[in-house]
Amino acid sequence: MSPRGRLLLFLPSAAALLFLLIDGLHQLPGFGHYPGPYGYVLNGVGVSQRHATNLVTAVNFDYRAFDTLGEEFILFTATTAVVLILRHMRGEREQPGAADTRRENASEALRGLALAFVAALIVLGGYVVVHGALTPGGGFQGGVVLAAGAFVVFLAGEVVAMKRVAPEKLLELGDAAGAAGFVLIGIGGLIFADVFLQNFLDLGKPGSLNSGGTIVLVSIAIGIEVAGAFLLVWTEFLDQAVLVRSGGDEGE
Amino acid sequence: MSFLPYAVAAWLFVVGLYGIVTSRHLVHLAVCLTVVQSSTYLILLSTGYVRHGSAPIYADIPPVSTAVDPVVQALTLTDIVVESTITALLLALAVQAMKRFGSVDPSFLRQLRG
Amino acid sequence: MNDVFQAIAMVSMGIVGTAVVLARDPLRQVLILGVYGMTMIITFFALQAPDVALSAIVITTAGLPPMVLLALRKLREYRKEHDQ
Question: A139: closest CA among A229, A55, A61, A52?
Answer without folding.
Answer: A61
